[in-house]
Amino acid sequence: MMFALGVGIGLIFYGAAEPVILYAEPPPGGPQPRTDQAAVVGLQYSIFHWALHPWAFFGITGLVLAYSIHNKRRRALVTSALRPLTGHRADGGVGRGINVWVIVTTLVGNAVTLGLGTLQIIAGLGFLWGVGTSTLLLVIVVGTLTIAFLLSAVSGVSKGIKRLADFNVVLALALMGFLLLLGPLQFILNLLSQAIGGYIFNFIPMSFQTGAFDEGTWMQNWTVFFWAWGIAWAPYVGTFLAKISRGRTIREYVMGVLIAPSIATIVWFSIFGGTALDLQLSGTRDIASPAVESAQAALFEVLDAFPLSMVTGLAVITLAAVFFVSGADAGAIVLGAFSSWGDLEPKKWLTASWGLLVGGVALVLLVVGGLDALQWGAIVVSSPAVLVLAALCVALIVDLRRDLRRPTGPGGERPPVVSAAD
Fold it and tell me: What pLDDT digit, counting tens, does each position of 157-213 carry?
């Protein structure tokens, strides 16, 4: 479920595309394009963009909210979690301003996801049946997805999100197994080993890379966009994680939210990205050129090189749609909670209203500028949210230190401070 909520649609969109695009267009200061080393760096940066960093955004937000909600008995609001820093101002103009911006950030983050899902589905329709892109088709796909996640959202978390997430996990595993069985297993394992080594060795330098001498827009289109998107989703994913994490320790929470999804993400990119790079390097099929032209087409180009491409292409369309629905319906519920003073069971009409608004914003962004508009939307709304995320970290430290200074019991034992939040 966490996988579907956090990065599901992004993995479908970029799983095969990003490694092979970065093979053709390496990062500033990287290797020469379309070389063996560029292939390694392509997978290395894909892991860098999708493994630990985004889940750290989600995880720290969820941890702070979980501790605030379950241990401190506060409302499910970002401003409530910031109360150790803001004090009574959390209930005044400062708190209301932060809450409004968190809602805007979450709204745009969900709209970006719907936009990516729409582009992936339209690419799949073109691959399977030759359907061309048009404004009418955008309206139809966005409208259909919006109605689908509205139905899922108003049905409740247990009946809607869990069923969709469980279904998509099975379908995603089946698609990975298909490529692993028919794909270049030895090449995937060798490439993964080299990419993981480069990722570990260059983790700090990559984290501080700013592209100071890059005259283009590489950093903006890749690292900045992905992290902005992750920050935009952090309040909503964090709220959902906080809701389902009661009863575990902080250590268990970190392992479950940070380590496990990162491993799953690395496996996903290794299989899909590794297969795409093998097709490219072996000369079997040019994946890079169509991927650079249209990132959403890359996965279908890869699948077209294997048997049953019509079946697997339809599976990708289904994955894209259901991954979006399973994440966006939770987003609509969280937006409802944020706009009803932290009520984790918001009224269904409010949830439905937010769902319609998310669909509308996504459609406007797609019509106005496509993928570029989606990227700029995420970057603009996430910039101030970085400060909020940093403040949440400080607020958690303040809460933990205060609790650790509490008086011990008669036998010298200290009351538990993390048993209710994982």
Answer: 556 566 777 888 899 999 999 999 999 999 999 999 999 999 999 999 999 988 888
Tens of pLDDT, residue by residue over 207-221, are: 998 888 877 789 989
Q: Quick count: other Cβ atoms within 10 Å of Cβ 69?
A: 24
Neighbours of 208 (CB within 10 A): 6
Pseudo-torsion of CA 288, 5, 95, 225, nearest 10°?
0
Q: What is the rounded CA–CA span in Å between residue 57 and residue 238?
A: 8
Helix axes 260-281, 161-182, angle to 10 degrees: 40
The structure tokens listed for 17 are 């595309």
Longest CA–CA separation in the chain, Å: 75
Average pLDDT, the chain: 88
Answer for the pair 182, 307: CB distance below 8 angstroms, yes or no. Answer: yes
Residue where the block lists tokens 């319906």: 329
